[in-house]
Amino acid sequence: MLTVCVDTNLWFYALARPAASDLGKHLAAQKLIFDLNQPLITPQIINEVSANLLRKQKWSEQQLRQLIGELQVRCQLFRPEEDWCEQASILRERYGFSFWDSLIVASAQAADCDTLFSEDMQHGLRINSLEIINPFAGLLLETL
User: Fold this and answer.
1) Homologous superfamily of 4-18+26-133 in CATH?
2) Which residues of 44-68 are buried (b: 16+ CB within 10 A; e: fewer)?
3) Could you write out the DSSP letters of every residue in 7-61?
4) Dist CA 35 CA 54 (whole Å)
5) CA 55 to chain centre
6) Domain residue spans of the chain
7) How far is Cα 104 from Cα 114, in angstroms, rounded to an integer?
8) Under 8 Å between Cβ of 4 and 36
9) What are the boundaries of the signal sequence (predicted)?
10) CA 130/CA 143 separation, integer angstroms
């Protein structure tokens, strides 16, 4: 069975009220996420999504608790081991990832994910058995 991780930004696009300019990304992210069977999620991703929904979308704490409960039921919750931060450092050094992105990639690798869906990293990059896919790559071409 394929194991898939979905980066923070895609969760945010799927859950937030979209600006008119983000409607295509909103719909694509919703379709992607809701078509997946138990995508991998980490406490970091839950925390980042929560912070953005509270700050940018003015979600209530009640809405947030409901979402967190739904994520814990519908997703595979993965908690990284101790060497996770060291592996993230190696990834930053080798690939130039941001601090937070390197932690998500290290988590996806530690969980033996086949695919990491992310808008922020190099589309098609393969790191061992993990492939990073930008699900919006086709959308960008359609708008040109």
Assistant:
1) 5'-nuclease (3.40.50.1010)
2) bbbebbbebbeeeeebeeeebeebe
3) -HHHHHHHHSPPPGGGHHHHHHHHHHHHHSSS-EE-HHHHHHHHHHHHHHH---H
4) 25
5) 18
6) 4-18+26-133
7) 13
8) yes
9) none
10) 28
HSE at residue 61, side-chain half, CA atoms within 13 A, is: 0
Structure tokens at 96: 């130039």
Length of the chain, please? 144
Spell out the per-residue pLDDT of the chain, length 144, in tens. Answer: 579 999 999 999 999 999 998 999 999 999 999 999 999 999 999 999 999 999 999 999 999 999 999 999 999 999 998 888 999 999 999 999 999 999 999 999 999 999 999 998 889 999 999 999 999 987 654 443
Angle between helices 99-110 and 84-95 (to 10 degrees): 120
CA 141 remoteness from chain centre: 22
